[in-house]
Amino acid sequence: MPELLAYDGRKIGEAGLCNLYNLTTNQQAIRDFVALTHDSIGNLEPILDVYPDRPAPVVRKTDGGLELARLTWGMPTPVEHLKTPDAPDTGVTNVRKTWIRHWQQWLGVEHRCVVPATAFSEYGQVPDPVTKRKPLYWFALDQAQPLFFFAGIWTRWEGTRGSNRTPRPGEHELFAFLTTDVNEVVKPIHPKAMPVILTNSDEVEVWLTADWREAKALQRPFPADRLEGIEKPATPTG
């Protein structure tokens, strides 16, 4: 197993979740992987770090085929977990307990999507003695960081996003991706969960079109021999 490299982590949300991933690719690579029929995102940044409550590309099924769209990362939070019923919602980025009623409403094919990525990060468990921050570790399929997809869900939602200081009321299109048990590569860093990863067109097709009984089988740990620790991806510029 390659040595896992740690990087000083900025505060990007709850340290127990995958709350930062990277997409370093181009639209043609996504088109070739999933046979897009419609692209509504405009120009895709060549390097994109994705943080919670920020827009990011997803692929979803529409009446006309597969669309590449830009949605905001973070599904609606269960009301009982908001500070107050009218508090701005920062969203839920990772979904694991799909048997909970709140999530079951979005498990049908009309609410499933796949999220393109080339690397994801997890926080380590021990804070740096100097910075007091938990370090970030990065993972990819291999050192070349080829394209893969997270298994996701999405919805349109009316309400207020953001924070009390910078609320964003209105209609939003939101997404999150599923997580599952960790494999032996991620486990030493983050023993609780890892994203659900799809790496071929057959898996993407099942996730986007199959009934839930078949699709939920994809919510499983990714094989450890197909995942590596990597250096921190290049940082977007401009």
From TrEMBL:
GO biological process: protein-DNA covalent cross-linking repair; proteolysis
Keywords: Covalent protein-DNA linkage, DNA damage, DNA-binding, Hydrolase, Lyase, Protease
Coiled coil: none
GO MF annotations, alphabetized: lyase activity; peptidase activity; single-stranded DNA binding
InterPro entries: SRAP, SRAP-like
Database matches in Gene3D superfamilies: 3.90.1680.20
Keyword presence, Kinase: no
Family that this chain belongs to: Belongs to the SOS response-associated peptidase family.
UniProt protein name: SOS response-associated peptidase YedK
Source organism of this protein record: bioreactor metagenome
